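Box 4.2: Ligand-aware structure prediction
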Amino acid sequence: MLDDPPESDTDAPANITHWYDPSSTATTITDGDGTRVVDDDGTEYLDFVSQLYCVNAGHGNRAIVDAMTDQLQRIQYVSSAKRTPARTELSRELAAVAPDSLSNVLFSVSGSEANELAMTIARDYADAPKVLSRWRSYHGSTYGAGSTTGDPETREPLEAHASTSGAVKFLPPMSYDSPFDADTPAELAEAAADHLEFVIKNEGPDTIAAILTEPIAGTSGAYTAPPGYFERVRELCDEYDILLIVDEVITGFGRCGDWFGIQTAGVEPDMLTFAKGVTSAYAPLAGTMMRPEIAEQVRSGGFDIGQTFGGHPVGCAAGVAALEEYADGLIENVRAADDAFADRLSALERTHDVVADVRGRGFLRAVEFADPETGAPFHDPRVDDGDNPVRDVIDAAGDRGVLFGAGRPATQLMLAPPLCATTDEIDTAV
Ligand code: PLP
């Protein structure tokens, strides 16, 4: 018999740590089905954050499990330098549903790595060192991707250790708590794009390889861009010869009502990164898509580096099956429920003084809390001392059987159910 593990001496609230601490009292999830998960006491929860914004097709999806099982029974692994039927099929299907400009894919394992590879390829292609990314963004936890992350809770600890060389931040077109003085969405789009142009000019366009941005801010608070913003960003990229990389790690695979978030703006990116929803989290898989001419130039220059588990066959089999589920009604379900979801949250804003803003699109939504007297957030987002009403709301909702996420900063509650959620379940959660 092993001894009991020592008691944890950290003060981190039990349910919000990623560290695996054997004595933690965090909920132990044992089972799942559709929008529901079950803990080891048999208590059922409505999973309104898709675990980490990734279980897009819902829990316990038989078609995905069967496809993975079939792959495992035939051959469990094939070198990432070889072809497998599932890998080939998934890359074809991705090219079919992604923006038209993107036909090549380089598979990896996590969203951080997909962004890491996108930046390396962009720097190589453009022969320029800088990547511009937004304040209030999340792009990953690794050496390079960590340096582009711009949310106040994650940026500081990451940046202390990340490679910040070449990482430049610009201001996002936030509609709430905006850094811009704008009265209308059109004014906001213009002011934010003008600011971006100012940054480009002052950094020196020749030194900039790429702009890396989420089409809709994910964990930074479900901020959609005002109409016209991404069109201007595309124009700036064309004018100054900068690649546009969209990070679709959260917004991809139907979460916001289209296959990819950028498609709602009708803008063609040069590169696109994905992870999470590609397999609906049945296996780790990620990828970097790009225009064919980028892939050709970079490959002919000698960049031909794969990862052992990049494009793992079981992940690709899951991906093919998950994409079929999305095409077969799940994306349509998000679209059909979009207005109802928005209406329910708007009603919450009208009836509850502490709700300062609601926003998002499809099944990626945020509720912002603020002191009704002062309009200020209830706590300093840079100090996560466990004394935060948003965390209290999350805990209280958990006690009543609904799981939500905390945004970064945690002044906002995140709602992101699996794409099979019904309007009744949205009602229950709200
Ligand atoms: N990009 C975005 C928008 C994300 O939300 C995340 C993770 O949450 C990442 C990148 C990093 O992905 P991963 O955690 O798989 O490395």
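In the box above, the bound molecule is pyridoxal-5'-phosphate. The two ends are 46 Å apart (CA to CA).
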